[in-house]
Please model this.
Amino acid sequence: MLTIIIDYGMGNITSVAMALDFLGVPYIVSSDSRKIHQGDGYILPGVGAFPAAMENLRSLDLLAPLTEEVVAKGKPFLGICLGLQLLAKDSTEKGFSGGFGWLDAHVTQIDAAKGLRVPHVGWNNVTPSESTVLFRGLTGELNFYFDHSYKMDCLEDVVAGECEYGGAITAAIEKNNIMATQFHPEKSQRNGLKLLRNFLNYVESSTERQ
Amino acid sequence: MLKTRIIGVVLIKEGLVVQSIGFARYLPVGSPTIAIEYLNRWGIDEIVLLDMTATTSNRPPQDRNLKEHCKFCHVPLAVGGGIRTIDDMSALIRGGADKVVINSTFPDNPSIVSKGAEKFGDQCIIVSIDARKIDGKYMAFTHSGAKTTGKTVVETAKLAEENGAGEVFLNSIDNDGMKTGFDLELAEAVRAAVDIPIIICGGAGIPSHFAQAAATGVSGVAAANFFHYTEHSVITAKTHIVDTVGNVRLDTYAEYTPSQIGDDGRLLKLPDNVLESLRFEYIPEEVI
Model:
C-alpha cells in the first residue's frame, strides 16, 4: 500500500508527512504527474488560496491523472482544508474560479455578520453523520482544528460531519472513495491522528480488494 | 462551538529556547524540539515559534531546523522571525509551519501581507505587533522592541486587516515576563477596532490570568515562560479556565478536575485518601 501526498507547491506538506510518519505508514510526497498512478490512496493537503492552488495544479498537470485514478478507478482520496474546497465546482475566493467539479458544491465566504470573526480559526467540535468511514470509533467531544475563511456548500448526502460557526459549516464530506475535511486532521492531535488512521485503514482495505 | 485557544509561545535566541523579560533580558530554557513536544503532549491548542535573532542579525528564517523542531507537533504551528519575502514564507510552510508570523517587515512593507494572503490565503498570515504604552497610548514596535514605528497599535492592526491578515498577535512589551497578568486594555482596544481574530500575549503568571483574558472575548491567549517552568502547566491552566469561564479544549490523558488551584496559582495537595487510591491507578497509553 502506498499513499501519495500530493505536492502542488503550497500545502503544509511537512505537517501531513510528519503525521503519517507518526502513524508509520508508507507514503511518498510527489508533484510528478507521471507517478500519480503508482498510489493506492491520495492525500491533498491545503494551505493556500483557491485560484493559486488551481493554477499550480494545472501547470503541474496533476488534475487529469488524479481524476483518472480517483473518479474513474475509485482509489481512496482525502482532501484537507483547501483540499476539500477544491473538489467543488467553483469558488468565489479572490475573484471567481473553477474547481475540480467532483462534487456538486460551491465555495463561498463565511458570512462575517452577527459579530463573527473571519477566518474561522481554532478548535471547534464536529458532529459526525451516521456511519462514516472517517469518524469511525471516535467518541466524546470531537474537537478539530479549523483555519479557513471560505466554506463549502454541498448536498446533504455527502456531508460526513458538520460544525457550528454562525450556522452549520461542512466539516467533512464522504462520497464513496472521495473524502475530505475542512479541518486539519494532521494538526488536531489524537482525534486527528485517529481520523487519518481511519482513512489509511480504508486505503489498505481497498488495496487488498483490488 | 469555537473554543478560546490557549497558545504556547516558543522564543528562540541563537537556537535555544529562552525566557524573555521585558524584551530586554533573556534566560535560557532549553531545546526547542523538547519544548514543542511537551507543549504538544500537554494539550496546547497551538504553538507560535519565534526566532528572535533572525531579524536583528539580518538573516532569513532558519527553515533547516524547523523539520526537527516540529517532529512531534500535532497541533498548528505558526512560525515567525526574519520573514521578508514570499519565498521565506513558502520555505517555512514547506518546512513544517502551518502559518507564518510577520512582524518587523510589516510597517515598512505592508504589501508583504497581501501578497502572502494572495498565495497562501488570509488564514495563513498572522501579523504580530509588539506594543508598548507611551504617554497613555499603545505604540507599535519592531525588531524585538528596539525600533519604534511611530504608529499606534490600533492603526497597525487596522492596516494588517486591510492587507488581508488572518489574525493579529499582540505582544505587550510592558507586561512581558512580569507575571502580573495580560494587558486586557490593550486586547480590548484592538479587539474593538478590527474584525479578525486577536491573540493576546505577555504577562501570564497564574492560571486565573488566562481565565481573565479568555473572558474578554479574544480568540487566543498566549504565553511562553508560564508554560515552560511547570509540569503539566497547559492542563492545569486549561482546567482552571474550564472551571471558571469555560469554553476551552481539554483533551489530555492527565486530569486535574476539579482544578483546586490556590491563589498563588499552584496546585493544592489532594486529601490523603484520594492520593492513596490514585497510587494504584494504571492508565495505559492509547495506541492510534
Notes: Residues 3-209 of chain A form a domain with the Rossmann fold fold (CATH 3.40.50.880).
